[in-house]
Amino acid sequence: MVLSFQYTTSSMTGVPKPIIPVILFNISDDINDPDSGIGMGMLVDSGADITTISETTAEILGIDLTAAQTSSTSGIGGSNIPVRVTEVVMILQRGGEAYKFITMVQIINDVNLKYSLLGRDFIFSRFDITFRERKNRVEFLRKNNDGIKKISPINR
């Protein structure tokens, strides 16, 4: 089944963007606990190597930033930006379809991040992703089960 998402009009630019809803959990959280996890919109970014979240999001998830591996990243501007790297549980769902998987994320200072980014690192190798610009839609078709578990949708 294809998970199809309508673009969301960005409050910053007023332009529709492929921002889709996901649910993130700390790796140690129980996804059935209604007090854990955070639902958020992430920009599907085919130019991002790795999924990226803000330090504020990491803190809400209870991620211990002092225990996360340190690294650096650079965008199209080329300057190195310090990041922390860890794993999170991500839920991608639409209608009656829901998928759970563990993915790496880089955590970046809020000042350096306009949108949380859904990068290529995990998602693009397990889903065929089609951008339908004229329809302002992005579609995800699961192409393999490697690391992905189909689950019942989570209500948040």
Provide a compact summary of the structure.
The protein has 156 residues and is mainly beta.
Describe the structure.
The chain has 156 residues and is mainly beta. 9% of the residues lie in helices and 50% in strands. The strands form three sheets. Strands 4, 5, 6, 7, 8, 9, 10 and 13 form an eight-stranded mixed β-sheet that branches. It has one domain: Beta Barrel (Cathepsin D, subunit A, domain 1). It is globular, with a radius of gyration of 15 Å.
Secondary-structure map with pairings?
Blueprint: E1 2-6, E2 8-9, E3 16-17, E4 19-26, E5 38-44, E6 51-54, H1 55-61, E7 69-74, E8 80-94, E9 97-108, E10 117-118, H2 120-126, E11 127-132, E12 137-142, E13 148-150
Parallel strand pairs: 5-10, 6-9
Antiparallel strand pairs: 1-12, 2-3, 4-5, 4-8, 7-8, 8-9, 9-13, 11-12
Properties at a glance:
8-stranded mixed beta sheet; Cathepsin D, subunit A, domain 1; 2 helices; mainly beta
